[in-house]
Fold this sequence. Notes:
Helix content: 40-55%
Strand order of the largest sheet: 3-2-1-4-5
Shape: elongated
Strand content: 5-15%
Structural class: alpha/beta
Amino acid sequence: MRHEFENCTIPFFLCPANPSFMFFYLSQFLSFLAMPLTLVLILILSGAIYYRKKWGKKILWLGIALLLFFTNPFLSNLALLAWEPDFKSFEEIETHEIGIVLTGVTNLSKTAYDRTFFNKGADRITHALQLYRMGKIKKILITGGQGLNPVNPQSEAELLQRFLIMTGMPEEDIWIEDQSKNTAQNAQFTKEFLAQKGIDTNQEFVLITSAFHMYRAQACFDKVGLKTETFPTDYYSHDVKYDIPSLLFPDSFSLEYWTKLFKEWLGILVYKLAGYL
Length: 277
C-alpha cells in the first residue's frame, strides 16, 4: 500500500504532503477555541477585567452560568443520550464475514511488548471478540496506526492483535491495517486492504466503534463505498437518574463529556469541509 506522503523527507507528522497534516492541526486549533472550558474562561476573565463596565458584569455572570451548565451531570448525560445511538443486542446482528474495529482505545504513551494497556473504550475490541465467539463475524479487521506524532513504535492495530491472540483467537482470523491516522483513512485504507486481499467490497461489514463516534465513522465508510451494519460500543451516557447529586452537584466529568461532544461535532464539520463525508 503506497500513499502520497511516503516520499516526504521530513518527519511524517510535519509533512505537507500528508493529507492528515492540515486537518489535524486545524481541528486541534478549532477545538481549543470552541471547547467549553475555553469559552468559560474567556468569558469569566473578560468579565473580571471589565467588571466596572455594565457589559463586563453580564459577561462574567454568563461565564459563571455556562460553567454551571457544562458541569451539570444531568444535562451532560441528556446530551450524550441524544447523540449516541442505541446499543444493539448481539442476537439481532446477522452473520457477516468481517467485523471492522476502529482503534483509539489503547495507551500508546506507555510502551510494553508483553501486554496491551487499554484506555476507556476497550469494549470496542472485547465486544468484537464476543461477536466472533458467537459466530456473528468470521474475521476481525482492526484498522488504526500510531497517530501523527508517535512515541510508541507499535501500532494500535498490532497491540489489539496481540490481545486477541492472547485470548486464544486464531491469528489467521485477525487482520490488521496499521497505516491509517484518522477515521477517514480508516475507511479509505480498509477498502484498499480488502481489495488487495481479494475480498468482495460490495458485501456488508459490521462496523464496531464508540457510540459517540459512530455517526462520523459510518459516514466515512459510506463515502468510500463500504456498506456497514453499525455495532456501537463504549457508551458515555447512562440511564437517567433523578437523584440530587445528578441534578444539582457540579461534576468535572460532565465538562469532559461536553468537551468530547464538541470535539466530535467539530470533527464532523472539518470532515465535511474536507470532503471526507
